[in-house]
Amino acid sequence: DYICPYSGKSSNAVETVLKPLLTSPKYAGKVKIILRPHPQPWHASSTLVHEAILAIAKVAPAVVSRYSEKLFKAQESFNDIPAQNVSPAVKRAKLAQLGASRRVKDLLQFKSTPNGGNDVTDDLKSCIRYSRQNSVYVPPTVLFDGLIANDASSS
């Protein structure tokens, strides 16, 4: 079962990749997958991209996987060199447009205080705190029962 930690709702975001594994007799009903975005601070647009994913997860958790596919197709425009002269406000607008939702755009807008962040800032902080307390520095990092499983990696 995949639960979005920000909406508390189930999602099909990992259905095509993990569902076959999770429904096997070995793991069926015993494993819960919780995805927590982990921005890479050395990439300037990473925080903005992860904010957008959190906004989508709040608005429509069932479409996180489709949004992620769109994001992967458009990722080069958010990479460091192509995005270096694009303001954060414009990047957020482009990310919201990929989600095709006015609500996503609203969630990514700054609050009224000068340093108040937006409506997903607290969610992003929660993800980062969780990562820090568990010594997560690079994605993907997999924890099983709260312990880092080093055998699961992007390689």
From TrEMBL:
Note the CDD domains from the entry: DsbA_family
Q: Domain of life of the organism in this record?
A: Eukaryota
Give the PANTHER family listed for this entry.
ACR183CP, OS09G0542200 PROTEIN
Q: What is this protein called?
A: Thioredoxin-like fold domain-containing protein
